[in-house]
Design goal:
The longest helix is centred in the middle third of the chain and has 20 residues, at 39-58. This protein has helices at residues 3-21, 39-58, 68-86, 103-116. The protein is mainly alpha-helical and 117 residues long. It is globular and about 35 Å long.
């Protein structure tokens, strides 16, 4: 699978999650198609896709035993690392820990893991 395909799968899962869980109308950037997504975000999406895939593979399918929260936390922490990679001084909200994330984002991160898994 190419980097782009993995990134697109991540992005599609993100958009589906935002549409399902976001209260009200999301910002246009939240649901922008792949082609309109900034390059750094495409790279980050592909990287997190790879991390989740590798985690599921080396766990021999036992990621199915994780709770939704554990799955979402894994996606969130992988994403935070990508933010630090791409931004010298990220905004605090970009690197917020799990407990500080809004519920819609937690649910979306869990959905992303399950879509990749």
């Amino acid at each position: 699978m190419t980097e782009e395909v993995g990134g697109r799968i991540f992005r599609e899962a993100w958009i589906a999650g935002v549409k399902k869980h976001f209260p009200g109308d999301p910002k246009p950037g939240y649901i922008a198609p792949w082609e309109d997504t900034p390059e750094w975000e495409r790279e980050a999406a592909a990287a997190v896709y790879r991390q989740v895939r590798q985690f599921a593979e080396i766990s021999a399918g036992k990621t199915a035993e994780l709770t939704r929260e554990q799955k979402g936390r894994f996606v969130a922490i992988c994403w935070i690392a990508q933010i630090h990679k791409h931004f010298e001084t990220p905004k605090p909200s970009y690197v917020a820990d799990w407990e500080a994330l809004p519920q819609w984002q937690r649910e979306t991160d869990s959905d992303i893991f399950e879509a990749i898994e």
